[in-house]
Amino acid sequence: MHDIRAIRDDPAAFDRGWASRGLGPQTEAILGLDAELRAAQTALQAAQNRRNEASRAIGLAKAKKDEAAAAALMAEVEGLKGAIADAGEAERTKGEALRDLLAGLPNIPAPGVPVGADEAENVEQHRWGEPFAIAAPQDHVDLGGALGLMDFEAAARMSGARFVVLKGELARLERALGQFMLDIQTREHGYLEVSPPLLVRDEAVFGTGQLPKFAEDLFRSTDGRWLIPTAEVSLTNLVREQITDEEELPMRLTALTACFRSEAGASGKDTRGMIRQHQFYKVELVSITAPEQSEAEHARMVDCAEAVLKRLDLPFRTVTLCTGDMGFSARKTYDLEVWLPSQQTYREISSCSNCGDFQARRMDARCRKAGEKGTRFVHTLNGSGLAVGRTLVALMENYQDEKGRIAIPQVLQPYLGGLTHIGG
User: Fold this and answer.
1) Which tens digits make up the pLDDT trace of 380-410?
2) Among the options 51, 162, 331, 390, which is catalytic?
3) Is the overall model pTM greater than 0.90, yes or no?
4) Residue tagged active-site, from 234, 351, 353, 384
5) I need a surface site. Which of 48, 140, 392, 402 has the fewest CB within 10 A?
């Protein structure tokens, strides 16, 4: 959500920000509605004030036995009821229209974010590790199928496309990865583990920016709740409508949850395998900070996500997303992209975003310094630490051998009872 006062002060800056995200000018319509809303509020206040004055004057007129004046004043009060009702309705409709318009507009990119139309204009920051030398690498679908531990056909029979059934040692490996990621983030990086709801109300997904524009990307239950597309929704909303002591910030939260996405905008993309599914597991990282902390916290969060890939010895690169590729709520985003031998390219495995106060305004999440009365909106950040399914894919493809076996990285072996290979 956006601060209407800031838009009034510098509309050109907002139009430039939205233009960098591919949108046309917005502030003329915003400020027009804002002026109409303030005019309705002024008219309502004036009518209410006059009604109160006339009501007091009725008593004075009656005390003076001036029945003619009292009758005239009573008629005026009666007439003001209509004016008050009209102004109140105008205030309501203009207010709703302004809120709806602002709610549908994305965050303004931070200074320095590269301007671009799509992922082709993202900017690489650095690479880590060398891609494994694998002759004729198989993709994870063929590897898992040959092992008899990955079944897309069975999943399709019961659920349709974009689902998978993992069995045996691959199911254990997926579970081990989630536990491994949680242990790093909680024991080494200071995140508090949370087990949050997977079903949330409209207000929660509005707060993190999925509603109203991206309802088609979500799954909805029969009672009107939404299945979370990421634990970002549940974790960030822990501070909704709250005032947090600044001494408690930054607040760092993590959760391993199932995530659910309709992939409405991904028709025809990544239809093979586990890269883009309706249901998957992810370890989410969320930070709640004071405004001046968020930039440093963003860099720290990226380091925390990168640490998992480094520990697994998976080659990756980190890129800054351009304005046209960022998510709706983000003001700056870094993506971590892991090397997939079968595709001979890097694919996203984590996205770490600083949302500034954009989500906090939608949630009314504030902070306050000790001894002060005033509050200010917190800053919120979120990232994957990591997407479990995509990490499983990366492990299978990078750790395959010529016999189709999958080697288990040494750091994961304790989570698998000392298992060193899957298959063979």
Assistant:
1) 999 999 999 999 999 999 999 999 999 999 9
2) 390
3) yes
4) 351
5) 402
Q: pLDDT tens digits for 298-331?
A: 999 999 999 999 999 999 999 999 999 999 999 9
Please say whether the beta carbons of 311 and 395 come within 8 A. no
Say if residue 355 is exposed, middle or buried (CB neighbours under 10 Å; 0-12, 13-18, 19+): buried
- The one-letter code for the residue type at 362 is R
Contacts of 390 (CB under 8 A, 6+ apart): 274, 275, 338, 347, 348, 349
What is the Cβ-side half-sphere exposure of residue 59, based on CA atoms within 13 angstroms? 5
Residue 273 corresponds to which tokens in the numbers above?
A: 């395998």
Identity at 377, one-letter amino acid code:
F
Identify whether 348 is a catalytic site residue.
yes
Find out whether 200 and 238 touch, Cβ atoms under 8 Å: no
Which of 99, 220, 348, 368 is flagged as catalytic?
348
Catalytic (active site) residue 276: yes
Q: Could you give the residue ranges of the DSSP H alpha helices within 104-222? A: 140-147, 152-159, 168-183, 202-207
- 90: β partners: none
* Side-chain half-sphere CA neighbours of 192 within 13 A: 13
Q: What is the torsional sign of CA 23, 26, 29, 30?
A: positive
Residue 254 φ/ψ, nearest 5 degrees: -145, 155
Catalytic residue among 8, 172, 220, 276: 276
Alpha-carbon distance values, 336 to 7, 254, 304, 317 (Å): 33, 18, 11, 6
Whether 284 and 382 have beta carbons less than 8 Å apart is answered as yes
Residue 172 catalytic?
no
Sign of the CA dihedral with 355 first, then 356, 358, and 360 last: positive
Q: Where are the beta strands (DSSP E) in 21-94?
A: none
* Tokens (6 digits) for 147: 């092992």
Residue type, 219: F
Who wins on pLDDT, 70 or 274? 274
pLDDT in the model for residue 267: 66
Confidence of residue 266 (pLDDT cuts 50, 70, 90): low
Beta strands per DSSP E along 228-315: 243-245, 251-260, 279-289
Task: Tell me the three state secondary structure of residue 278.
Answer: coil
Question: Which of 399, 398, 355 minimizes the C-alpha distance to 378?
Answer: 355
Choose the catalytic residue: 21, 51, 252, 261.
261
Q: Rounded distance, CA 274 to CA 25, Å?
A: 39
